[in-house]
Each structure stands twice: as structure tokens, then as C-alpha cells.
């Protein structure tokens, strides 16, 4: 397929969430957090994960799914260094998004190396690229951060604010309050603060009405 002919079928946010929920339940019925993404990828789906030096530093790429849908290539530092564990988890979940959502599309693509993949992605129509990556990101976010435990955690955090008579901060600057909460909220899910903030906003759990807090 030539890059100009690339077409990513549109999917609603709700449909992406449904697929993410179904796949998490299918491949991670244990429901423990954080989701053990390497176990799912390597053991349950039997995909090869190949670490490559310089993938991020040289090509600004964390991971990519090969078009045979059998291998995910990841940056070696993310794979080996504990401090990048959350980054690796999201990168793998993102590639699983492509794996599950775009399985029919990948075999039609024309790249075999990471350089060819990057060149292809940089030259497809902007709207198609945005849709393609948005779908994988939204899948990954809901796959790693189930709504119910997130909602429970935010309710507990807000109740703590109320108990400490700090609700005026929420009324004054909800974004600042969320930034302060994010390091604690993201920990159980094994994702970054940025991911947890995005999930709260996408799930419409933030900003919240201070008057609704118990």
C-alpha cells in the first residue's frame, strides 16, 4: 500500500473502550493491577519482544509492531531499566492497540525496518495518522487503567481533601489539584502522571463538582 492510500477506519471512543475492556478481561482475568503487559504479550499472545539499542535516542521511537503481527521491537533502555518500566508498559499496550484494532491493515503496509516504518508513518495523510495513533493510545489507556478502580481512587483522594478542609483548592484551581494528586493516583496502575490525568479527563471524572464530594 502506498502511503497516500493509507486509510484508518474511524472508531468511536466508546467502541475503543469496549474492545479494550473485552481484551483485558480475556487476557488478564486476574484483574490485578498493574496489568502485567509483558505476560500478556509474551506468554498469552506469544509475541516476540525484541529490545534494540538506540531506538528512542536515534529514531525517537519507543516501540513498533512489525507488519507480520508477530514481533514488537522496543527501545533497549526502556526494556532493561526499571525507571522506564511505566513507559515500556504503555508502549507495549499501545502496540497491542494496533495489534487488536488494525490487524487487517498491517499486512497491507509496506515496511520491513524501523526506518521504513517511520518514513511510512511520517508520509501518510495527517488526519489518518492522527486517527491511527489516537485509537492505539485510547485503547492502551483504557486497557491499563480500568474505569472502576480509577473512579474509586479519585473518590478517596477527594474525600481526603474534604476531610482536611482543602476543598477550596479544588474550587480555585482543579488542574493544580489534579497535578498534585497524579503521582499517587498513577502508582497502582503503573502508568505515568500524564496518562492518569488524561484518563481522568477522558473518562469525565475530572474536573469534578466540589459539591458532589461526600
Protein architecture, described:
This protein is mainly α and 214 residues long. Helix content is 58%, strand content 6%. It contains eleven helices and three strands, in the order ααβαββαααααααα. It has helices spanning 13-27, 37-44, 55-59, 76-80, 85-101, 114-123, 126-144, 147-163, 167-172, 174-186, 193-202, and strands at 48-52, 63-65, 71-75. β2 and β3 form a beta hairpin. It starts with 12 loop residues before the first helix and ends in a 12-residue tail after the last helix.
- The Rg value, from CA coordinates, equals 19 Å
Count of DSSP E strands?
Answer: 3
- Separate helix tally: 11
* SSE string: HHEHEEHHHHHHHH
Roughly how much helix do the residues carry, as a percent range?
55-70%
Strand content: 5-15%
- Tell the overall outline: globular
Distance between the termini: 55 Å
Overall pLDDT score: 90
Main β-sheet description: 3 strands, mixed
Strand-pairing-aware structural class: mainly alpha
- Walk across the major sheet and give the strand order: 1-3-2
Uncertain runs with pLDDT below 50, 5 residues or more?
210-214
Short description:
With about 210 residues, the chain is mostly helical.
List its salient traits:
214 residues; mainly alpha; disordered C terminus
Topology:
Layout: H1 13-27, H2 37-44, E1 48-52, H3 55-59, E2 63-65, E3 71-75, H4 76-80, H5 85-101, H6 114-123, H7 126-144, H8 147-163, H9 167-172, H10 174-186, H11 193-202
Parallel strand pairs: 1-3
Antiparallel strand pairs: 2-3
Helix pairs in contact: 1-7, 5-7, 10-11
Amino acid at each position: 500500500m502506498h502511503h497516500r492510500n493509507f486509510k484508518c477506519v474511524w472508531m468511536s471512543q466508546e467502541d475503543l473502550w469496549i474492545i479494550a475492556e473485552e481484551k483485558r478481561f480475556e487476557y488478564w482475568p486476574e484483574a490485578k493491577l498493574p496489568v502485567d503487559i509483558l505476560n500478556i504479550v509474551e506468554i498469552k499472545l506469544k509475541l516476540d519482544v525484541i529490545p534494540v539499542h538506540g531506538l528512542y535516542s536515534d529514531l525517537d521511537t519507543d516501540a513498533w509492531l512489525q507488519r507480520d503481527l508477530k514481533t514488537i521491537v522496543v527501545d533497549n533502555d526502556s526494556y532493561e531499566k526499571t525507571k522506564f518500566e511505566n513507559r515500556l508498559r504503555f508502549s507495549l499496550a499501545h502496540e497491542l492497540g494496533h495489534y487488536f484494532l488494525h490487524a487487517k491493515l498491517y499486512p497491507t503496509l509496506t515496511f520491513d525496518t524501523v526506518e521504513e516504518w517511520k518514513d511510512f508513518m511520517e508520509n501518510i495523510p495527517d488526519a489518518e495518522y492522527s486517527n491511527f495513533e489516537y485509537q492505539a493510545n485510547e485503547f492502551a489507556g483504557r486497557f491499563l487503567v480500568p474505569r472502576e478502580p480509577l473512579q474509586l481512587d479519585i473518590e478517596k483522594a477527594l474525600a481526603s481533601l474534604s476531610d482536611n478542609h482543602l476543598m477550596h483548592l479544588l474550587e480555585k484551581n482543579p488542574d493544580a489539584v489534579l497535578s498534585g494528586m497524579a503521582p499517587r493516583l498513577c502508582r497502582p496502575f503503573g502508568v505515568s502522571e500524564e496518562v492518569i490525568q488524561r484518563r481522568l479527563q477522558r473518562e469525565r471524572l475530572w474536573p469534578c463538582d466540589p459539591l458532589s464530594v461526600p
